[in-house]
Amino acid sequence: MNEFNTTFQLSNGISIPSIGFGTWQTPDGETAVKAVTAALKNGYRHIDTAAIYQNEESVGRAIQNSGLSRQDIFVTSKLWNNARGYKKTMAAFEETLNRLALDVLDLYLIHWPAKDGHTKEWQELNLSTWRAMEELYQKGKIRAIGVSNFLVHHLHPLMEQAEIQPMVNQIEFHPGYMQEEVVQFCKEHQILVEAWSPLGTGKMLNHETLKKLAAKYQKSVAQLCIRWCLQNGTLPLPKSVTPERIIENIQVFDFEITADDMNTINDMAYFGGSGLHPDHVNF
Ligand code: A2P
User: Ligand 1 within 6 A of 240 CB?
Assistant: First the structure.
Protein backbone atom coordinates (compact mmCIF):
# COMPACT_ATOMS: atom_id res chain seq x y z
CA MET A 1 0.00 0.00 0.00
CA ASN A 2 2.50 2.61 -1.09
CA GLU A 3 0.63 4.70 -3.62
CA PHE A 4 -0.99 7.95 -2.71
CA ASN A 5 -4.64 7.57 -1.83
CA THR A 6 -5.36 3.92 -2.44
CA THR A 7 -8.82 2.42 -2.05
CA PHE A 8 -10.60 -0.34 -0.17
CA GLN A 9 -13.32 -2.31 -1.87
CA LEU A 10 -16.68 -2.67 -0.15
CA SER A 11 -18.61 -5.95 -0.26
CA ASN A 12 -20.80 -4.60 -3.08
CA GLY A 13 -17.72 -3.87 -5.22
CA ILE A 14 -17.67 -0.09 -4.69
CA SER A 15 -14.23 1.49 -4.21
CA ILE A 16 -13.75 3.79 -1.23
CA PRO A 17 -10.67 6.03 -0.84
CA SER A 18 -8.63 4.55 1.98
CA ILE A 19 -8.33 7.72 4.06
CA GLY A 20 -11.41 9.80 4.79
CA PHE A 21 -11.36 13.37 6.01
CA GLY A 22 -13.13 13.53 9.39
CA THR A 23 -15.31 16.53 10.25
CA TRP A 24 -16.60 15.66 13.73
CA GLN A 25 -16.12 18.75 15.93
CA THR A 26 -15.36 20.92 12.91
CA PRO A 27 -17.46 24.07 13.39
CA ASP A 28 -19.94 24.89 10.64
CA GLY A 29 -19.36 27.86 8.37
CA GLU A 30 -16.03 29.22 7.25
CA THR A 31 -13.97 26.79 9.35
CA ALA A 32 -15.62 23.73 7.83
CA VAL A 33 -15.56 25.12 4.29
CA LYS A 34 -11.87 25.97 4.61
CA ALA A 35 -10.94 22.61 6.15
CA VAL A 36 -12.76 20.54 3.51
CA THR A 37 -11.43 22.80 0.75
CA ALA A 38 -7.87 22.27 2.03
CA ALA A 39 -8.45 18.53 2.24
CA LEU A 40 -9.73 18.28 -1.35
CA LYS A 41 -6.95 20.53 -2.62
CA ASN A 42 -4.35 18.29 -1.00
CA GLY A 43 -5.56 14.97 -2.31
CA TYR A 44 -8.30 13.70 -0.01
CA ARG A 45 -11.16 12.26 -2.04
CA HIS A 46 -13.35 11.04 0.80
CA ILE A 47 -15.20 13.31 3.23
CA ASP A 48 -17.01 12.04 6.32
CA THR A 49 -19.79 14.10 7.87
CA ALA A 50 -23.04 13.51 9.76
CA ALA A 51 -26.36 15.27 10.32
CA ILE A 52 -25.46 15.83 13.98
CA TYR A 53 -22.16 17.55 13.12
CA GLN A 54 -24.31 20.35 11.70
CA ASN A 55 -21.76 21.08 9.00
CA GLU A 56 -23.27 19.25 6.03
CA GLU A 57 -24.07 22.50 4.23
CA SER A 58 -20.48 23.69 4.56
CA VAL A 59 -19.16 20.31 3.43
CA GLY A 60 -21.48 20.54 0.42
CA ARG A 61 -20.31 24.05 -0.39
CA ALA A 62 -16.63 23.03 -0.30
CA ILE A 63 -17.41 20.12 -2.61
CA GLN A 64 -19.30 22.31 -5.11
CA ASN A 65 -16.49 24.88 -5.09
CA SER A 66 -13.69 22.35 -5.43
CA GLY A 67 -13.89 22.09 -9.20
CA LEU A 68 -13.61 18.30 -8.88
CA SER A 69 -16.05 15.96 -10.59
CA ARG A 70 -18.74 14.65 -8.32
CA GLN A 71 -17.79 11.04 -9.07
CA ASP A 72 -14.23 11.71 -7.88
CA ILE A 73 -15.33 12.50 -4.33
CA PHE A 74 -16.71 9.92 -1.91
CA VAL A 75 -19.16 11.47 0.57
CA THR A 76 -20.45 9.82 3.74
CA SER A 77 -23.13 11.05 6.09
CA LYS A 78 -25.00 9.55 9.03
CA LEU A 79 -28.54 9.35 10.29
CA TRP A 80 -28.97 10.93 13.71
CA ASN A 81 -30.62 9.10 16.61
CA ASN A 82 -33.81 11.19 16.64
CA ALA A 83 -34.62 10.03 13.10
CA ARG A 84 -34.70 6.27 13.64
CA GLY A 85 -37.51 4.28 12.03
CA TYR A 86 -38.54 3.88 8.38
CA LYS A 87 -40.46 7.12 7.78
CA LYS A 88 -38.17 9.42 9.71
CA THR A 89 -35.11 7.90 8.05
CA MET A 90 -36.56 8.62 4.62
CA ALA A 91 -37.19 12.26 5.58
CA ALA A 92 -33.83 12.71 7.31
CA PHE A 93 -31.98 11.29 4.31
CA GLU A 94 -33.68 13.79 1.99
CA GLU A 95 -32.69 16.64 4.30
CA THR A 96 -29.09 15.43 4.36
CA LEU A 97 -28.99 15.28 0.56
CA ASN A 98 -30.42 18.80 0.33
CA ARG A 99 -27.95 20.22 2.82
CA LEU A 100 -25.08 18.59 0.97
CA ALA A 101 -26.60 19.70 -2.36
CA LEU A 102 -26.08 16.22 -3.79
CA ASP A 103 -28.33 13.90 -5.83
CA VAL A 104 -26.74 10.71 -4.59
CA LEU A 105 -24.85 9.93 -1.39
CA ASP A 106 -21.90 7.51 -1.51
CA LEU A 107 -22.34 6.05 1.97
CA TYR A 108 -25.07 6.46 4.59
CA LEU A 109 -24.66 5.09 8.10
CA ILE A 110 -26.92 4.60 11.11
CA HIS A 111 -24.93 6.80 13.51
CA TRP A 112 -25.63 4.86 16.76
CA PRO A 113 -27.63 1.69 17.38
CA ALA A 114 -30.93 1.78 19.22
CA LYS A 115 -30.15 -0.39 22.23
CA ASP A 116 -31.52 -2.45 25.05
CA GLY A 117 -32.58 -0.25 27.96
CA HIS A 118 -33.40 2.60 25.58
CA THR A 119 -36.49 0.89 24.20
CA LYS A 120 -37.75 -2.68 24.45
CA GLU A 121 -38.21 -2.67 20.68
CA TRP A 122 -34.63 -1.66 19.95
CA GLN A 123 -34.07 -4.50 17.48
CA GLU A 124 -37.23 -3.62 15.51
CA LEU A 125 -36.25 0.03 15.51
CA ASN A 126 -32.82 -0.69 14.06
CA LEU A 127 -34.44 -2.96 11.50
CA SER A 128 -37.08 -0.44 10.36
CA THR A 129 -34.33 2.17 9.99
CA TRP A 130 -32.35 -0.35 7.99
CA ARG A 131 -35.34 -1.12 5.72
CA ALA A 132 -35.37 2.54 4.68
CA MET A 133 -31.63 2.46 4.02
CA GLU A 134 -32.04 -0.72 1.95
CA GLU A 135 -34.80 0.89 -0.11
CA LEU A 136 -32.77 4.04 -0.74
CA TYR A 137 -29.83 1.86 -1.74
CA GLN A 138 -31.96 -0.19 -4.12
CA LYS A 139 -33.35 2.99 -5.69
CA GLY A 140 -29.79 4.16 -6.35
CA LYS A 141 -29.96 7.14 -3.96
CA ILE A 142 -27.08 5.73 -1.87
CA ARG A 143 -24.14 3.75 -3.28
CA ALA A 144 -23.35 1.90 -0.05
CA ILE A 145 -25.02 1.52 3.36
CA GLY A 146 -23.71 0.68 6.79
CA VAL A 147 -23.74 1.38 10.49
CA SER A 148 -21.63 3.14 13.07
CA ASN A 149 -20.85 2.33 16.69
CA PHE A 150 -22.49 -1.08 16.40
CA LEU A 151 -21.07 -3.86 18.59
CA VAL A 152 -21.50 -7.54 17.79
CA HIS A 153 -24.71 -7.80 19.81
CA HIS A 154 -26.21 -4.91 17.81
CA LEU A 155 -24.99 -6.26 14.48
CA HIS A 156 -26.20 -9.81 14.96
CA PRO A 157 -29.97 -9.23 15.12
CA LEU A 158 -29.82 -6.69 12.30
CA MET A 159 -27.82 -8.96 10.04
CA GLU A 160 -30.16 -11.88 10.66
CA GLN A 161 -33.09 -9.87 9.25
CA ALA A 162 -31.29 -7.70 6.70
CA GLU A 163 -31.82 -8.23 3.00
CA ILE A 164 -28.68 -6.26 2.31
CA GLN A 165 -25.82 -6.70 4.75
CA PRO A 166 -24.07 -3.61 6.15
CA MET A 167 -20.97 -2.79 4.14
CA VAL A 168 -19.30 -0.59 6.75
CA ASN A 169 -19.14 -0.23 10.52
CA GLN A 170 -17.57 3.03 11.66
CA ILE A 171 -16.27 2.73 15.21
CA GLU A 172 -13.78 4.38 17.52
CA PHE A 173 -10.45 2.74 16.70
CA HIS A 174 -6.93 3.84 17.59
CA PRO A 175 -3.94 2.38 19.47
CA GLY A 176 -5.54 3.35 22.79
CA TYR A 177 -8.81 1.53 22.11
CA MET A 178 -8.84 -1.32 19.62
CA GLN A 179 -12.24 -2.99 20.09
CA GLU A 180 -10.85 -6.36 18.97
CA GLU A 181 -14.09 -8.33 19.18
CA VAL A 182 -16.16 -6.18 16.85
CA VAL A 183 -13.23 -5.61 14.48
CA GLN A 184 -12.72 -9.36 14.15
CA PHE A 185 -16.45 -9.94 13.63
CA CYS A 186 -16.58 -7.31 10.89
CA LYS A 187 -13.58 -8.81 9.11
CA GLU A 188 -15.24 -12.23 9.15
CA HIS A 189 -18.41 -10.75 7.64
CA GLN A 190 -16.86 -8.54 4.92
CA ILE A 191 -17.82 -5.36 6.76
CA LEU A 192 -15.18 -2.66 6.35
CA VAL A 193 -14.22 -1.07 9.67
CA GLU A 194 -13.80 2.68 9.53
CA ALA A 195 -11.82 4.24 12.37
CA TRP A 196 -13.25 7.40 13.89
CA SER A 197 -10.79 9.41 15.94
CA PRO A 198 -7.73 7.47 14.71
CA LEU A 199 -5.63 9.85 16.84
CA GLY A 200 -7.87 9.31 19.86
CA THR A 201 -8.95 12.96 19.37
CA GLY A 202 -5.29 13.82 19.91
CA LYS A 203 -4.76 11.69 23.04
CA MET A 204 -2.37 9.31 21.22
CA LEU A 205 0.10 12.01 20.31
CA ASN A 206 2.07 12.05 23.58
CA HIS A 207 2.31 8.33 24.25
CA GLU A 208 5.98 7.39 24.78
CA THR A 209 5.90 4.08 22.87
CA LEU A 210 4.18 5.68 19.90
CA LYS A 211 6.59 8.62 19.98
CA LYS A 212 9.59 6.28 19.89
CA LEU A 213 8.17 4.24 17.04
CA ALA A 214 7.21 7.32 15.03
CA ALA A 215 10.74 8.72 15.42
CA LYS A 216 12.17 5.47 14.06
CA TYR A 217 10.23 6.00 10.81
CA GLN A 218 10.86 9.77 10.84
CA LYS A 219 7.13 10.26 10.90
CA SER A 220 4.79 11.99 13.34
CA VAL A 221 2.72 10.01 15.84
CA ALA A 222 -0.37 11.08 13.88
CA GLN A 223 1.08 9.56 10.70
CA LEU A 224 2.05 6.40 12.60
CA CYS A 225 -1.52 6.00 13.93
CA ILE A 226 -3.07 6.56 10.51
CA ARG A 227 -0.70 4.12 8.83
CA TRP A 228 -1.32 1.60 11.63
CA CYS A 229 -5.07 1.77 10.90
CA LEU A 230 -4.46 1.11 7.20
CA GLN A 231 -2.12 -1.82 7.83
CA ASN A 232 -4.76 -3.31 10.13
CA GLY A 233 -7.22 -3.17 7.23
CA THR A 234 -9.28 -0.33 8.71
CA LEU A 235 -10.09 3.00 7.09
CA PRO A 236 -8.91 5.99 9.15
CA LEU A 237 -10.89 9.24 9.31
CA PRO A 238 -8.47 11.80 10.78
CA LYS A 239 -9.99 15.20 11.56
CA SER A 240 -8.12 18.48 11.45
CA VAL A 241 -8.86 22.12 10.74
CA THR A 242 -5.14 22.95 10.45
CA PRO A 243 -3.81 22.98 6.87
CA GLU A 244 -0.32 21.61 7.75
CA ARG A 245 -1.87 18.74 9.71
CA ILE A 246 -4.41 18.05 6.97
CA ILE A 247 -1.48 17.59 4.58
CA GLU A 248 0.60 15.62 7.11
CA ASN A 249 -2.21 13.17 7.78
CA ILE A 250 -2.39 11.96 4.19
CA GLN A 251 1.38 11.56 3.76
CA VAL A 252 1.37 8.00 4.99
CA PHE A 253 1.96 6.07 1.78
CA ASP A 254 5.75 6.36 1.74
CA PHE A 255 6.57 4.11 4.70
CA GLU A 256 5.57 0.75 6.07
CA ILE A 257 5.37 -0.30 9.73
CA THR A 258 7.19 -3.61 10.21
CA ALA A 259 5.29 -6.67 11.44
CA ASP A 260 7.15 -6.47 14.77
CA ASP A 261 6.22 -2.84 15.28
CA MET A 262 2.59 -3.56 14.28
CA ASN A 263 2.58 -6.24 16.98
CA THR A 264 4.04 -3.85 19.54
CA ILE A 265 1.19 -1.41 18.91
CA ASN A 266 -1.43 -4.15 18.62
CA ASP A 267 -0.34 -5.49 22.02
CA MET A 268 -0.64 -2.15 23.80
CA ALA A 269 -3.13 -2.04 26.63
CA TYR A 270 -6.18 0.21 26.65
CA PHE A 271 -5.04 3.76 27.35
CA GLY A 272 -7.60 6.28 26.36
CA GLY A 273 -10.87 5.76 24.60
CA SER A 274 -13.50 8.46 24.45
CA GLY A 275 -15.72 6.52 26.85
CA LEU A 276 -18.60 6.78 24.36
CA HIS A 277 -19.90 3.23 24.68
CA PRO A 278 -22.97 2.59 22.48
CA ASP A 279 -24.84 0.84 25.31
CA HIS A 280 -24.22 3.67 27.76
CA VAL A 281 -24.41 6.93 25.83
CA ASN A 282 -27.51 8.93 26.68
CA PHE A 283 -28.14 10.46 23.26
P1 A2P B 1 -6.98 20.44 14.81
O2 A2P B 1 -8.30 20.08 14.19
O3 A2P B 1 -7.07 21.67 15.65
O4 A2P B 1 -5.87 20.48 13.81
P5 A2P B 1 -9.09 12.57 15.74
O6 A2P B 1 -9.04 12.57 14.25
O7 A2P B 1 -8.50 11.37 16.39
O8 A2P B 1 -10.48 12.86 16.28
O9 A2P B 1 -8.17 13.78 16.25
C10 A2P B 1 -8.49 15.11 15.99
C11 A2P B 1 -7.69 16.02 16.89
O12 A2P B 1 -6.29 15.84 16.64
C13 A2P B 1 -7.98 17.46 16.66
O14 A2P B 1 -7.86 18.13 17.91
C15 A2P B 1 -6.89 17.91 15.71
O16 A2P B 1 -6.61 19.27 15.88
C17 A2P B 1 -5.73 17.07 16.15
N18 A2P B 1 -4.83 16.68 15.05
C19 A2P B 1 -5.19 16.24 13.82
N20 A2P B 1 -4.11 15.95 13.08
C21 A2P B 1 -3.03 16.23 13.85
C22 A2P B 1 -1.65 16.15 13.63
N23 A2P B 1 -1.14 15.70 12.48
N24 A2P B 1 -0.82 16.53 14.65
C25 A2P B 1 -1.33 16.97 15.82
N26 A2P B 1 -2.63 17.06 16.07
C27 A2P B 1 -3.49 16.70 15.11
Answer: yes
Q: From ligand 1's centre to the CA of 237, what distance in Å?
A: 11
Residue 221 Cα, ligand 1 centroid: separation in angstroms? 11
Is any ligand 1 atom within 6 A of the Cβ of residue 242? yes
Nearest protein Cα to ligand 1, atom 2: 240
pLDDT in 10s for each residue of the chain, 283 residues = 445 679 999 999 999 999 999 999 999 999 999 999 999 999 999 999 999 999 999 999 999 999 999 999 999 999 999 999 999 999 999 999 999 999 999 999 999 999 988 888 999 999 999 999 999 999 999 999 999 999 999 999 999 999 999 999 999 999 999 999 999 999 999 999 999 999 999 999 999 999 999 999 999 999 999 999 999 999 999 999 999 999 999 999 999 999 999 999 999 999 989 999 999 999 9
DSSP 270: P
For residues 114 and 155, the answer to whether their CB atoms sit within 8 Å is no
Ligand 1 in reach of 198 Cβ (< 6 A): yes
Q: How far apart are CA 112 and CA 154, in angstroms?
A: 10
* Ligand 1 near 229 CB (within 6 A): no
* Bridge partner list, 196: 172, 237
Mention every residue, 6+ apart, whose C-beta is less than 8 A from residue 169. Answer: 146, 147, 148, 150, 155, 182, 186, 191, 192, 193, 194
In short, whether 273's Cβ falls inside 6 Å of ligand 1 is: no
Helix (H) or strand (E) holding 76: strand 74-79
Q: Is 53 part of the annotated catalytic residue set?
A: yes
Distance of CA 8 to the CA centre of its chain: 13
> Atom of ligand 1 at shortest distance to CA of 174?
7
